[in-house]
Amino acid sequence: MRREIELFLQAYPDVSMIEALITDCNGVARGKWIPRGKIQSVLDNGLKLPKSALGLDIWGRDIPELAFQTGDIDGYCMVVESSLRPMQTIRGVDQGQLIMTMFNEDESPFLGDPRQILAQIVKRFEDKQLRPCMAVELEFSLLPDPGHDRPLREAFKGRESLGGNLYALDELDRHAEMLETLRAAFEVQDLPYEGIIKEAAPAQFEINMAHSDNVLELADKIIRMQRAVRMVAARFGMIASFMPKPMDDEAGNGMHVHCSLLDEQGANVFNNGGDEGSKFLQQAIAGCLEVMPDSMLIFAPSFNAYRRFQAGNHAPTLPTWGWDNRTTALRVPAGPPAAKRIEHRVAGADANPYLTLAVVLAGILHGLEKKLKPPPAIIGNAWAQEHAGELLPTLMNDAIERFSASESMQTYLSEEFQVIFTKTKRQELDEFQRRVTDFEIESYLRG
């Protein structure tokens, strides 16, 4: 990689600072800014960060039980090969970005690092001579920033009061300068941008990403893309929010994941030449459905995320599947047999991309290894079919308990991560449960 660094510095003489980025369990970018002259040292020696830095709560606070019981020991963040990219800031292309991943002192992967968790799942597919091919749709809300001296609620004042103007080109025209700046930022970083649409809720947009059979790199690119969206929006006085349910009575922001499996020749094993797909497709669907309730905490990691799961509100409430059916949790899109795939529609936009892809793949692997069979496909409105199975956990405390006791999550993600994520989410839930909301005061104070 030394030659790669040399070529990068030659190609971008204006780059004075490199952003070394690692992603915590909440999908938040952590790390350091490194002067240009120190990049080779980071390549050779990595960076030390406390292991607890990857298990912070959503406010960036330590989990005392995790941090202090071991003396808050360091992990070793090493550079991901070929991950150095330029970044376009308000001044031009004058900053770089490196993806890092964490190891233990004995050079074994630290399985509290979401990227390492995804890597071990991908390795299990490689051992079966299979290669996941995945793509993601990213939804976000674009709102005016009221400034740090004003309540954030004021961001919603200027939005439309009725309807979201779905697929409207006029809405893209309104933000054309920002969206063109965003496209240019994606191009500088070689991100797999395939377009943007206006989505169902007011101020809601969706970015489509090209599919890739390099799943780890895809997850890296999702993190880069989210970071770029936030940075560009801020330059235009806007907030780009991946909050899963920012508005009352409107659809929330999701992260839909598309997945097929390729064999050693590059053929899609979900394809049997017909519309019904192969036995491997059926097994994959069954596995995803079976692990879905236990993995809900990954797909909905925040207190707010559970407000998104309401019947008829564009988010699944049951572990169901269907043919080209957007009311189900798993959709098999229509299209040519060679493109046969699963669209996993559960995750909110705030879910960690590494963990989301890992759990989708864990479900597929589970189905293949157990040779499971799915229930019949749902026909019609899945929200209206209560007999279709148990409800997915729709409260954070229920999701935490399912995740913490799950043998499948321990098996596929690691016992170490199961403990870290459980304690992190319990600390977050405790904070929310101690707070009294404005709505509660309005409802009960005079009662």
Summarize the SSE layout with pairings.
Elements: H1 2-11, E1 17-23, E2 29-35, H2 39-45, E3 47-50, H3 64-67, E4 74-79, E5 85-89, E6 92-103, H4 114-126, E7 131-144, H5 169-174, H6 176-188, E8 193-198, E9 204-209, H7 215-235, E10 238-241, E11 255-262, H8 279-291, H9 296-299, E12 321-323, E13 330-332, E14 342-344, H10 353-370, H11 396-404, H12 407-413, H13 415-433, H14 438-444
Parallel strand pairs: 1-6, 12-13
Antiparallel strand pairs: 1-2, 3-4, 4-6, 5-6, 7-9, 7-10, 7-11, 8-9, 11-14, 13-14
Helix pairs in contact: 4-10, 6-7, 8-10, 11-13, 12-13
Describe it.
- By secondary structure, the chain is of the alpha+beta class.
- It has 2 domains: 2-110, Ubiquitin-like (UB roll) (Roll); 124-443, Glutamine synthetase/guanido kinase, catalytic domain (Creatine Kinase, Chain A, domain 2, 2-Layer Sandwich), CATH 3.30.590.
- It contains 14 helices and 14 strands.
- The strands form 2 sheets. Strands 7, 8, 9, 10, 11, 12, 13 and 14 form an 8-stranded mixed β-sheet that branches. Strands 1, 2, 3, 4, 5 and 6 form a 6-stranded mixed β-sheet that branches.
- Strand 8 and strand 9 form a beta hairpin.
- The chain is globular.
- It starts with a helix and ends with a helix.
